[in-house]
Design brief:
By secondary structure, the protein is an alpha/beta fold. The chain has 17 helices and 14 strands. Bound molecules: pyridoxal-5'-phosphate (PLP).
Length: about 450
Amino acid sequence: MSSPGWPGAPGRAARGACYPDESQSPTRPEAPLSNSVHPSISSSGLTHPESDGELRQAREHDLFAKAHAFTRAEELVALGLNPYFRAIEAQHGGAVTVEGREMVITGSNDYLGLTQDPRLKEAARAALDDFGTSCTGSRFLTGTLTLHEVLELRLAEFFRKPAALTFSAGFLGALSIISALVGRHDIVYFDRENHASLFDAARLSFGTLRKYAHGDMDALERKLAEDSRKPGGRLIVTDGVFSMSGHVAKLPEIVEIARRHDARVMVDDAHASGVLGAGGRGTAEHFGLEHEVDLIFGTFSKSLASVGGFVAGDAKVVNWIKYKARPFMFTAALPAMQMAAALKALEIIDAEPWHRERLWENVRRLRDGMSSLGFDNLGSTTPIVPVLVGPDETTVRFWRALWDEGVFSTPALPPSVPAGQAIVRTSVNANHTPEQLDRVLTVFEAVGRQLGVIV
Ligand SMILES: Cc1ncc(COP(=O)(O)O)c(C=O)c1O
């Protein structure tokens, strides 16, 4: 079967890096799917057989034409091959109910399993009673609650930084920090595997974006050296744990390079907060570099079992972002329930290291099992355990076979990953039982052999 052309964009938008960056062009129309591939499926709900040149020309000016011509997702749904937007009916431990049946979930980012913790639910309920359902205003004006101040103090304390600021989403945090700090003559250096929110943030800023190959410290140093005579400030931005490969950033080298070239360092610890470091304080703590990293950026939407973003760093810099960042100022403030849940999660991360210990036991079980079966896990050392499949189509078929066997995973296709290197992304959480993980391994082995991914 010819490749029907997988709609990779949802993967990119939802999580992960972009390869290549240029493919993000929002104005590029989708190429229509040829009817010869799937004769039963219309390539466009818009096209009439009698369309003449005049009609086509008129449609070129219709802003909605690309949307009307976009049929890939529907076609994949019809084929049972659309992995996106699968609705979960209930969640319990390491399992979920979908379409009335129980499945082991391997793609979530609930690393410590705290989304179902009764103490977080209770804290959120109490905040709901005290503050209501929404702030209905920007932090700048009527949206600041005492709870924002409490949470920001607690975050600063937890991450050992002078100050912290919260955002209504991590994505908005990335946009806020980078657009406020990186001005016209400034240069920002990005690992190509950085999260999509960081790339969009760089595009929103007026500075220059310089990308280096994933983990290539020589390339980073070279680019900084090439720019040495240019004016402006320098900011190196890296994911702490890369969301697709599960790699940990080479922070000791990054910090050294930054020092040599007078650059600031920002780490996106979305996948590292609560996970890395003896105290769960993330990548900087893991390497003993908490003082060397200038800005720790993160989200509540993973280990902290809530929604929202944050930055911790120098008080004057945090204050600058607070007064200058449009995606912070012109949006409604983070609601109380989300903050109360995140606050409780921070307390638990501090007081109960056993959630993290159990997570790492599970990581070892799944990762060691996968590699002894012969899967290529891209050298991941974290709870993100990618399984390299390669071709897009095989990857989606892999996902579907897992799905049929009750394993909920997430395929990541280009541009979330480099072309030809599509993966099934699995991730482990503290609530997975050994039986659930063994089941995942059994199913992966059967599907991997069936599709020739392992022999
Ligand atoms: C590495 C990384 N950074 C930032 C974000 C954005 O966080 P949020 O979900 O809070 O918008 C995500 C979430 O997908 C992420 O994976």
